[in-house]
């Protein structure tokens, strides 16, 4: 029997021998096929790696990073961090979740031209708030100043347990803007006045030039067409004698 098996194995290709052994294993051990499945417990997708290595804020001068951290940093660099998106579901417990906006939200205006609360789409009476966002990251407490734009109702929820600072255009900047506008108008008026004066001077110069040219032209044409006066015989004789004695 053993000799027959050896002769069969020696004449069978490796792949066929593999299939034969697997089939024999399945027939002899019912239910053992579960052991042939690949272990997928350690499989990770890109999004899983990003979630594991995600940071709300990254240090620009970060040193050497693992490829997992580099992937998370690359995702972070694609986020838009001017305004944040928040979740006020548990605002009564003073728990607010925040994240940065993605490109799709920036294009649609979510968080800037409409309310930045995750479940709200109101775009009326928006107000900008600066929040000292405290969060726990890998067991370490961190803080970050974040700006969010909320409607009137969501603003009340945000400030229900703690009053946050509202970001508004300062009066000083408004006054400076008005001063700049006034000075610009004055500069324009002064420039226009100078331009008018310059144009008037140019007109006077042009008129003087035209007068001089007219006088020169008259002088040039004054002798044209006029015949010289005929000299008397005595005058001609005196001229002859004068030339003779020279």
UniProtKB/TrEMBL annotation:
Transmembrane segments: none annotated. InterPro entries: Folate-sensitive_fs_Fra10Ac1 (IPR019129), Histidine_acid_phosphatase (IPR050645). It comes from the Eukaryota. One of its GO terms (molecular function) is phosphatase activity. Residues 165-181 have a biased composition (Basic residues). Residues 165-186 are annotated as: Disordered. This is Protein FRA10AC1.
